[in-house]
Amino acid sequence: MEYSLMTKLAAEFVGTAILMIFGNGAVANVELKNTKGHHAGWLNIAMGYGFGVMFPVLMFGGISGAHINPAMTLAQAVMGMFPWADVAPYIVAQLLGAAAGQLVVFATYYPHYRDTEDAEAIFATFSTTDAENSKANYFLNEFFGTLVLVLGALCCLLLPWGAKDLAAASIVVGFIVWGLVTSLGGATGPGLNPARDLMPRLLHQILPIPSKGTSRWNEAWIPVVAPIAGAIVGAFLFKVLFAA
């Protein structure tokens, strides 16, 4: 069944919002003061992001492809796997969805944002940064993490076994994200998605949060450019090596 563009955009908007609610919601639960999950640990965050990708792909993979990531959309367009005419609308829907999801996280954790004095903990619930303050390391981790994510997701969703069983493929994609956060995520967060980092960073800048500190705009280009570059390489490898 072919859905209208508006239905596809609604799926991208809601799917990206769900990603943010589960992903950054998990970070807020761990990092913010006086939550019931305070200091629950990295696995809690990894699970949040894994489920935050798994559920939108299960819900909307058959409607819009559940890109929920501008890097995925651009990479597929560059490789001739997605129409360029739909790229801008998809990305706008993803950006707006990321903002909406982050606003839900802010609203539901608002008392804990007021209680938290640690600026780094607050920032972590919005955007990413390199643990060693190394822009080179930041770029490398976001590049290779997104490369693995896109290659893995395309193999799961587009190869014959996944195309026949979208539910099974969606679950595996969620586990890929879960695994990436536990393995490569320690250095940067990770982002692996320009919308997931850029829109929350903008909200971090403008929302009235005590003790929030700087929004680190001097490095904001990295979690935008590196995932796009990594995604294009991942899609290229998929098309050259594995696509039918």
Would you mind describing this structure in some detail?
α7 packs antiparallel against α9. It is built from eleven helices and no strands. It has 244 residues and is mostly helical. The chain is globular. Pfam families: MIP.
Topology summary:
Layout: H1 5-31, H2 42-60, H3 70-78, H4 87-108, H5 110-115, H6 119-124, H7 135-158, H8 160-164, H9 166-183, H10 194-206, H11 222-241
Helix pairs in contact: 1-2, 1-4, 2-9, 3-4, 3-11, 4-10, 7-9, 7-11, 10-11
Features:
244 residues, mainly alpha, Glycerol uptake facilitator protein, 0% strand
The CATH architecture assignment turns out to be Up-down Bundle
Distance between the termini: 22 Å
- Total helices: the number is 11
Question: Main β-sheet: number of strands, strand sense, barrel status?
Answer: none
SSE succession: HHHHHHHHHHH
Oligomeric state of this protein: single chain
CATH class label: Mainly Alpha
Could you name the ranges where pLDDT drops below 50 across 5 or more consecutive residues?
A: none
The coarse overall form would be: globular
- How big is the Rg? 17 Å
What percentage of residues falls in helices of 4 or more residues?
Answer: 55-70%
CATH superfamily label: Glycerol uptake facilitator protein
In round numbers, the mean pLDDT is 97
Structural class: mainly alpha
Give the total of beta strands.
0
Which strand-content bin applies to the residues? under 5%
Count of separate structural domains: 1
What is the CATH third-level topology name? Glycerol uptake facilitator protein
